[in-house]
Design a protein that fits this description.
Layout (H helix, E strand, L loop, with lengths): L6 H13 L6 H10 L2 H13 L9 H14 L6
Helix pairs in contact: 1-2, 3-4
Length: 79
């Protein structure tokens, strides 16, 4: 299933999905790990996890996905 990804990519995608409690979206996180630099993804993950949950409309995973894509569309994704 993950034969296209190296062990570091798999580990990072698992770490992100577990941190966000979003294991159902592991395939998406694998795509992000392949597409974007690790530092960029960790920066967004840290930002999302540092926010008070009451200030998040849906959930942390949805906010993370939004911010990753927002940065990508504005050229700050570091890809």
């Amino acid at each position: 299933m993950y034969s296209d990804y190296d062990p570091h990519e798999i580990k990072l995608a698992h770490e992100i999905s577990e941190t966000l409690n979003d294991q159902n979206s592991l395939a998406l996180h694998l795509q992000y790990v392949r597409k974007f630099k690790e530092g960029y993804l960790r920066k967004i993950l840290n930002k999302v996890m540092s926010l008070d949950e009451k200030k998040i409309r849906k959930n942390r995973a949805a906010l993370y996905t939004f911010l990753v894509n927002q940065g990508a569309s504005h050229g700050s994704a570091g890809d």
